[in-house]
Amino acid sequence: MLESGENYLETVLRIMEQKGHVRSVDVAEALGVTKPSVSRAMSILRAEGYVVFADTGHIQFTEKGRVKAEAVYDRHRTISRFLVLSLGVSEELAAKDACRFEHDISEETFERMKNYVKEHSA
Q1: Do 41 and 91 reside in the same domain of the chain?
Q2: Which CA distances in Å does 70 have to 78, 88, 99, 122?
Q3: What are phi and psi of 33, to 5 degrees?
Q4: Which of 20, 91, 102 is nearest to 69 (CA)?
Q5: Nearest 5°: phi and psi at 106?
Q6: Same domain for 102 and 50
Q7: What is the DSSP letter of 83?
Q8: Up-side HSE of residue 85: CA atoms within 13 Å toward CB?
């Protein structure tokens, strides 16, 4: 899956956790993109089996989509926390950097970061 698809899935998950439901306009606002861009991305994600649209027009995950979104979001949170704990960077900078790292980091490095966070979190 491409980085942009992962970003859309993560954004849908975050909005869903905040609001309980997700509309295309919510995703567009969160990512700072146009509604047609969201529609195109959601069409691709639907074709790949990650999302479906409810009768209300709300975006919903398939099981496959939820698993992928949660994995991407877990990577984001873990990397962000690692940067704060190990390097002392601000939460804001850590979140920005995590957005870049989460898509390209190896599984071994991610697991080591995850272990570090577990060991150093209070």
Answers
A1: no
A2: 12, 26, 14, 23
A3: -120, 170
A4: 102
A5: -70, 160
A6: no
A7: I
A8: 16
